[in-house]
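Entry 14. Structure prediction run on the chain below.
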Amino acid sequence: MPLQRSEWLRTARDILTEDYGQTQGDIVVTIQDSLGNTIRYTLTPEQGSLLLAAALSPMEADIVRALGDGCMIGKRLASAAGYVYNSQFRTIVANLCERRPPVLRKTDQGYRVVSAGADNGR
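Output returned:
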């Protein structure tokens, strides 16, 4: 039975830690085929196991990093993450809210990162 993506990413992090010790900052896992098609996952240390399993794209990781422990409305979040507030950005944020488990939660004050073990209700 093949490994699930989240298991594979955890294994990649474990191998890196085993070979080089505890890491500081982001871990970027890049997979590239012979045609140059590339998939890149950015795993930030503050994400913990919940978001590690989420396998965030570079844009998604920027959004999560910009939020940190705070809460922001969409336009402010786009600016903080370094993106234009447009339909693509809104779709990415909506997808982060709809994932199982969710990565972001929309509140009356804006978006916030769902922490591991938190109540994930809407």
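The two ends are 34 Å apart (CA to CA).
Filed with the rest of this week's runs.
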